[in-house]
Design goal:
The protein is α+β, with helices and mostly antiparallel strands. The protein folds into two domains: 248 residues, BirA Bifunctional Protein, domain 2; 113 residues, Anticodon-binding domain (Rossmann fold), CATH 3.40.50.800. Helices cover 29% and strands 25% of the residues. The strands form seven sheets. A seven-stranded mixed beta sheet has the order 3-9-10-16-13-12-11, sandwiched between helices. It has a five-stranded mixed beta sheet with strand order 20-19-21-22-23, with helices on both faces. Strands 5-4-6 form a three-stranded antiparallel beta sheet. The structure holds adenosine-5'-triphosphate. Adenosine-5'-triphosphate (ATP) binds next to strand 10, strand 13, strand 16 and helix 9. The site of adenosine-5'-triphosphate has 16 residues, from strand 10, strand 13, strand 16 and helix 9.
Length: 461
């Protein structure tokens, strides 16, 4: 399906995200901060689950990747070596008539604020300036004196913390090339045109991994990581036909890069297919630059083969916020309910990613049902994030959890206390099964540990 065929769900997602507590605008009571967002109770659970999945796949389940948590503030020379001081800029164009700002390289995607059906420059009033380079790094000062010697930057990517620690990690862990270093952390970019909810923000989190390989073996590792990263997105439940590789053209490719592919996701509407992750073969550019600027040897010594060299780097870089947005867009659906006038809104999240795993509901507030349901909720809480709710009609309680993406609803009814069993209702097909109370943990665990992207009763057997 082409991008144009999928509807734009961002507006309804923004309002659902606020209503249910996934994502709020930062400093909302003061009118909001431009393109900065806060994760609410459901959002923080969802994003943590995404980060946990990444950490497990990239670090815990492998013996050739080590974890790291480098600081946000780094020596200012790092950013000279990396090329960010001189080159991390976007071409900025101002419109003198309406004061809007545009990225020159994204002009064809932008709309004239005075007449959104036209591109900037197409309206008779437009007065566009020539493009000028605008550095995207946030600057601040280290220590009490605000002079140029005290300038430090908020990191615009996490990768440099990995490069400068390459030998520290290698020597501490005694890893042999090929091996990787992975980290999750905040990055900051003073973007010219942030927007589209959390798609492009000024403060965001990256999940990056640098895999150090012997020159000459780099393309083979590159291909392997490209596939592994696509598979990771598929296992989160992103639809296969919403994902594609975009190969960087000669013009897009950095001068030092040997190859680069983006993994693009179709966000629908006018946004369409956009990058969520980059997989790059960066040659030995970064280590060579740091070796030169720091005057410290960063070569890897291959003792077994009596060789020393600067490894090449295969980088995988994915935005935690951007992939979380892709997951929400992919999961959101409105559907009719047979026999009911009102349809329902469902956040069809992969059960393992869902912020709340199960809602626990007494059908009525009598006959010991609330007590039994509370006991069950307390027992389940030791293993899962569950939500106990006894307020209002059962149908409405189910609907609230459908919107929150909760895969299972566990209901205690009039027969439960006598038979010691409950009903499990599945979010995706609304099917129900009856299970004995002692089996609930097992049924839920099976779903959470399997790679089923959906939760439905049809699979329960
Ligand atoms: P773009 O061309 O969209 O500005 P980029 O190519 O500069 O992105 P990278 O530097 O490759 O992006 O960053 C790697 C990943 O970090 C991206 O794929 C994206 O998921 C995430 N990312 C980058 N910039 C932002 C941002 N401003 N807001 C949210 N996520 C971002």
């Amino acid at each position: 399906m082409s991008a144009a065929n999928r509807p734009d769900v961002l507006d309804s997602l923004v309002s659902l995200a606020k209503r249910r507590g996934f994502i709020f605008q930062s400093s909302e009571i003061y009118g909001g901060t431009g393109s900065v967002w806060d994760y609410g109770p459901l959002g923080v659970e969802l994003k943590n689950n995404v980060k946990q999945r990444w950490w497990n796949a990239m670090v815990r389940e492998r013996d050739d990747v080590e974890g790291l948590d480098a600081a946000i503030l780094m020596h200012p020379r790092v950013w000279e070596a990396s090329g960010h001081v001189s080159g991390f800029s976007d071409p900025l164009i101002d419109c003198k008539a309406c004061k809007a700002r545009f990225r020159a390289d994204k002009l064809t995607d932008a709309a004239c604020p005075r007449k959104p059906s036209k591109k900037p420059g197409e309206h008779t009033d437009c007065q566009l300036t020539e493009p000028r380079q605008f550095n995207l790094m946030f600057k601040t000062f280290m220590g009490p004196v605000e002079d140029s010697a005290a300038v430090v930057y908020l990191r615009p990517e996490t990768a440099q913390g990995i490069f400068v620690n390459f030998l520290n990690v290698q020597q501490a862990t005694r890893q042999k090339v090929p091996f990787g270093i992975a980290q999750i952390g905040k990055a900051f970019r003073n973007e010219i045109t942030p927007g589209n909810f959390t798609f492009r923000t000024r403060e965001f989190e990256q999940m990056e991994m640098q895999f150090f390989v012997e020159p000459g073996t780099d393309m083979e590792h590159f291909e392997r990581w490209k596939q592994a990263r696509l598979d990771w997105h598929l296992a989160l439940g992103l639809d296969r036909d919403r994902l594609e590789f975009h190969q960087h053209t000669e013009k897009e490719l950095a001068h030092y890069a040997r190859a680069a592919f983006d993994i693009n996701f179709d966000f629908g509407g006018t946004l369409g297919f956009q990058e969520i992750e980059g997989v790059h073969n960066r040659s030995d550019f970064d280590l060579r630059q740091h070796q030169e600027f720091s005057s410290k040897k960063l070569e890897y010594v291959d003792q077994a083969n009596n060789k020393r060299y600067l490894p090449y780097v295969i980088e995988t870089s994915v935005g935690a916020d951007r992939v979380t947005l892709a997951i929400l867009v992919n999961a959101l659906r409105e559907e009719a309910v047979p026999g009911e006038q009102e349809g329902r809104t469902v956040m069809g999240l992969h059960p393992a990613l869902a912020p709340i795993k199960a809602g626990v509901f007494p059908l009525t507030k009598k006959d010991g049902q609330p007590e039994m349901a509370e006991r069950l909720a307390t027992a389940l809480r030791k293993k899962f994030n569950v939500f106990y709710d006894e307020a209002g009609a059962i149908g409405r309680r189910y609907r609230r959890q459908d919107e929150a993406g909760t895969p299972f609803g566990i209901t205690v009814d009039g027969d439960s206390t006598a038979n010691d069993d409950v009903t499990i209702r599945f979010r995706d097909d609304m099917g129900q099964i009856r299970v004995s109370t002692s089996k609930v943990v097992e049924v839920l665990t099976n779903y959470l540990e399997a790679d089923h992207p959906r939760a439905d009763a049809a699979r329960a057997g």
